[in-house]
Amino acid sequence: MEKHEAxxxxxILDYVTAALRSxxxxxxxxxxxxxxAERVGTSLIPVREALYQFVGREMVIERHREGFYAAPLNAxxxxxxxxxxxxxxxxxxxxxxxxxxxxxxxxxxxxxxxxIATQSQCPALIGVQRYLAGRLLVARLHETDRATAGELAAxxxxxxxxxxxxxxxxxxxxxxxxxxxESSAITRKMSQS
Length: 193
Description:
- By secondary structure, the protein is mainly alpha-helical.
- 65% of the residues lie in helices and 5% in strands.
- The chain has two domains: 8-70, Winged helix-like DNA-binding domain superfamily/Winged helix DNA-binding domain (Arc Repressor Mutant, subunit A), CATH 1.10.10; 75-192, no CATH class.
- It has nine helices and three strands, in the order αβααββαααααα.
- The protein has a three-stranded antiparallel beta sheet with strand order 1-3-2.
- The termini are far apart.
């Protein structure tokens, strides 16, 4: 079976997502399409098309006659996004439908949140969870230390695998509350990296 190479558009989306996640592109940074086109090896048109997808997700903003910028985030916006994400995960657990997916040990709580949303089998909740996860993408690198994230992911994995909705809620609340409390520190870290 042949492997198909990712489309140019997908390569651009992957590149920008990775740059946002790693902190290469920080909130408020100008995004220069020409630089992305050179890195990905394409023309400006597909880069602009991909950036408009990020504009639609509110991860990137376009300023008339100025260009594209990574969406700004401050502590208040972060707190609001984490609060809303916690509510969505809670709603996803409410709509949880068997059979429960087999879940291996995942190291990233965000991967588990995506699984939990999918298990709700509710397209609206899945869509809102993806939107909020995208908006919070730039904060992930700074949320918690890796040991804490691994501990949380392990506890969430066990609760998800066992269908323990109370355990999922407990670990989700713990994660989101910690991020809300650390939102000022997360914002500072994002601006320094």
